[in-house]
């Protein structure tokens, strides 16, 4: 029972990160601003092209070493360190996929259609 609760908590955390960040990336990829489009495309390409296991190792072993010593030691000493880094890595990896799906969904609407995408933009902005 305890393992199921642990798994469901981890899943809830990374799903929230993935959906929020993914929709933001999808909107950035469909933006008319070149800078936002480039940032969204770079994020998607980096996180989709690097395998998930490599990202987990980077977040758990490399990132704390790159932080200042006092902060890196605090991150490594956390009781839930593996949980936090796994949730973060899964969330960022999945956000790239959600962002691509959001972009494809927005661009799938025909131009002459009473644009639901425009209503969506108005709702967000």
The average pLDDT is 84
Tell me the strand percentage band.
under 5%
CATH architecture: Orthogonal Bundle
Report the uncertain regions.
Answer: none
What does the main sheet amount to? Answer: none
Tell me the count of domains: 1
DSSP summary: helix tally: 6
Number of strands: 0
Class based on secondary structure composition and strand pairing: mainly alpha
Q: How much helix is in the residues?
A: over 70%
Integer-rounded radius of gyration: 17 Å
H/E element string?
Answer: HHHHHH
Task: Describe it.
The protein has a single domain, classed as MetI-like (MetI-like fold). The chain has 6 helices and no strands. The protein starts with a helix and ends with a helix. The mean pLDDT is 84.
